[in-house]
Specification:
The structure is a homodimer of 336-residue chains. Chain A has 336 residues and is mostly helical. Helix content of chain A is 72%, strand content 1%. Chain A has one domain: Farnesyl Diphosphate Synthase.
Chain lengths: 336, 336
């Protein structure tokens, strides 16, 4: 991803973040080092560190603290994935075996906890108590969202509002934190912090909607995991909710409304899953979901037009603002 | 515990910590509030918050930040217990059902993660980046210790050195952090910070040794959990290691050396467990283990004699130093 034109600006910094992500305290237990190494080297799009770095450069934060914040955000993201995959029983992510596929549940819980602690350690190296507080608050939002999803019947809800709350907690909260982090580190004008946070929120919502669309339409190999994975878990995402609304008489929609896809029922057969994925992928729901994602991207860009950011962006820094705009466009354009 | 004579000094502060522990952000999901409420109200000895408060008072830290640090340490301790109990399959702690006894593993993992995040949030309210960094480092030590214990064959080791490393990671690291926290918040002389940290380390080692002795000798009702629980999990603690050394020809010791008590074997029958617990409880191993605990308490008290602390303790503050000395004596005297 660092080859994307808008990231060329921060290519060196992204490389330094990679090095930070691979660094471990000298006395780390080999099994932990190995597990984190595998998780970190499996790649991922690094969109969160890129946001931290662009926002830091835009607002004039010091490089070293920005690098630690960028690594901390990515490490926190990694930690949440470890426990998520364990809970969902996912065995493949980014084309690689998940930790729970090769370790016992107990080991996976503990290694996940260690990675949370390591993320907090990296965050503490920014020496910003405000940023550390925002880190903790964001993790609370993420965990609370997951508990709510689980206790609320694993997403078998047909509410668009609940869907948005869920993807805010799951994805947009951390992307929002990444976007505001640079402004916080730079002690920028409060309106600049809020503008970047709002940008990140809409960017994150769009990002997750696109992810949810790709779960119906993507090529498995490119996606690095099986398609239809949300539905397999009884989780109704935006494309599916729109499909049910648009094609209420379709057999798939009728079965959904009768509760057949809800978690807790007998697992879906691969044939039934395939039928549902095909139905949604071939419907207008995909286009409509992408329109909603596009709308969030427009709102994200509007947030960047805040006067607080234009004044913060001197001529020398204006390129970072442009990169943030381009990154927003990329999020809805990507196919993986 | 706040009725103990050396804690009367900080009774009001301990009460304020209780209130902080019961406070939740306004939009907390009810299931999370209820779970934390149950964990927090089940009591526990509150030795960690007491240490933070005494060290803060001794070194002259501000009250509000000390209260947040005390609540943060207790919340971090609570979070570690949630995942520990899940992993150990423990159903009772402090006389109450554990979270994993009433929630699914997935819910328990996520609620535990939330409590970690909440502990980090409380720590961030101290506005001390150094303390927050120490929090993160300590959690890394705790998790790493658990991973090591698990991958190293669940404690079926006969090494005294490994035992000490394990109880340092599990217990002494956090007690040590609690003891130094007040000094860090007060920006005390570095030697004062180190002296309190050393005090906490030995106090914590003694505390865990006494816990491990009580697991053989205590009254179940007073202990709030079944005795022999370590051995049931194939975990060899100091009294058992000493017993094997002292009575190598005893049938229990011989069976242990043949690997019969190690984790991964067939579970111990209650009769076999009872026999082993009785044998250890009736042996000189108990006395010897308590002598080692006493030695750590002596070292803890010696650390408090550091000139850096005497100079930090004005006449008005000397009572807190005495309370820390008394707390050390209490740790080896307690029977629960």
């Amino acid at each position: 991803m660092s080859e994307l034109p808008f990231l060329v600006l921060i290519r060196d910094e992204l490389e330094q973040v990679e090095q930070l992500l691979r660094r471990r305290p000298p006395d780390t237990y080999p099994a932990i080092t190995e597990a984190i190494e595998r998780l970190v080297s499996s790649g991922g799009k690094r969109i969160r560190p890129a946001l931290v770095l662009l926002s830091a450069r835009l607002c004039g934060a010091g490089l070293e603290r920005a690098l630690f914040a960028a690594a901390a955000v990515e490490m926190l993201h990694t930690a949440t994935l470890i426990h998520d995959d364990l809970i969902d029983g996912a065995t493949v992510r980014r084309g690689q075996s998940t930790l729970n596929a090769t370790h016992s549940p107990a080991e996976t819980v503990l290694i996940g906890d260690y990675v949370f602690a390591y993320a907090a350690y990296l965050a503490s190296q920014t020496e910003s108590t405000r940023l550390m507080c925002r880190f903790a608050e964001t993790l609370m939002v993420i965990c609370q969202g997951e508990v709510r999803q689980m206790l609320g019947g694993r997403g078998g809800s047909f509410s668009f509002r609940e869907y948005e709350q869920r993807i805010y907690a799951k994805t947009a909260s951390l992307i929002s934190l990444a976007a505001e982090a640079g402004a916080i580190l730079a002690s920028a004008d409060e309106r600049a912090v809020q503008a970047l946070r709002l940008y990140g929120k809409h960017l994150g919502l769009a990002f997750q909607i696109v992810d949810d669309v790709l779960d119906f339409t993507a090529d498995e190999e490119m996606l690095g995991k099986p398609v239809g994975s949300d539905l397999r878990q009884g989780l109704f995402t935006l494309p599916f909710l729109l499909f049910i609304e648009l094609e209420a008489q379709h057999p798939v929609a009728r079965r959904a409304l009768e509760g057949e896809y809800a978690a807790g029922r007998a697992p879906l057969s691969e044939a039934a899953l395939y039928e549902a994925v095909q139905a949604v992928a071939g419907s207008k729901a995909i286009e409509q979901a992408m329109e909603i994602a596009d709308r969030h991207i427009e709102w994200a860009k509007e947030a960047l037009a805040s006067p607080a950011l234009s004044s913060c962006a001197t001529d020398a820094r204006r390129d970072y603002l442009i990169a943030l705009l381009e990154l927003a466009d990329f999020v809805v354009r990507r196919r993986f």
